[in-house]
Design a protein that fits this description.
208 residues; alpha+beta; 20% helix; binds nickel (II) ion
Amino acid sequence: MAILKIARMGHPILRQAAQLVADPTAPEIRRLVEDMIETMDDAPGTGLAAPQVHVPLRVVVFFVTAARAAREADREGGQDETDQSATHWTPAADPAREENQGEGVGLTVLINPVIEPLGVEKTLAWEGCLSLPGLLGEVPRYHAIRYRALGLDGQEIRREATGFHARVVQHECDHLNGIVYPQRMTDLSRLIFTSEMHHAEMHHPDRA
Ligand code: NI
C-alpha cells in the first residue's frame, strides 16, 4: 500500500477521458484501489478518482457517512447554501465509513461506472476537491441518479442515489471524463477560498 501523489487542476491527466478497465478482478486493479483508499483516507477526502492519482482508468472510490448525508438532506429540505450546524467531520473517526448506517454509504469501489439522471431536478451545494486544494465551489448536480458499475469481484453494482450520495458519484465520475467541478458551475462568483468560508456561513464540505 502506498499514498499516491494527487494531481492538481492544470495537470493534463485531469483533462483527459479515462479508459475502461478490461479486467476489474486483475491484481493490479486491486492494488490501485488499495492505494487510492489509503490516499483518500490520508488526504482526507470522501471520494477519489483514478485520474487524480495520475492513472487514466475508470476507477472511483468513495463513501458517505450517515451524518454527512443527513446534513445534506437537511440543507436541501430547508435553507440551501447555509448550514448552521457547522460540524467539522473527520472521516477516519466515523464508523459509518465501514458499513452502511442510516442514509450513509459504505466504502464503495466503482469500476467503469455509468450514470443516468433520474428526472431533471438539480440542486446547488458546496463541493471541494482534492485536486483543487483550498477552494470550494457551489455546484449544480442532479438530485437523483441511477448508476451501475463493476466491483473488484467483477460483479455488477446497481444503485439509485439522491442528495449527497448522488452528488459525490457525479463529482467522481466527472473526473473520469476530464471534468473538474468549476466546469459545472453556473456562477463563478461562488468559487471561493476555504479560508473565507465563514463569510458564507457554511460548514467545510468534504473533498472528493
Ligand atoms: Ni474531485
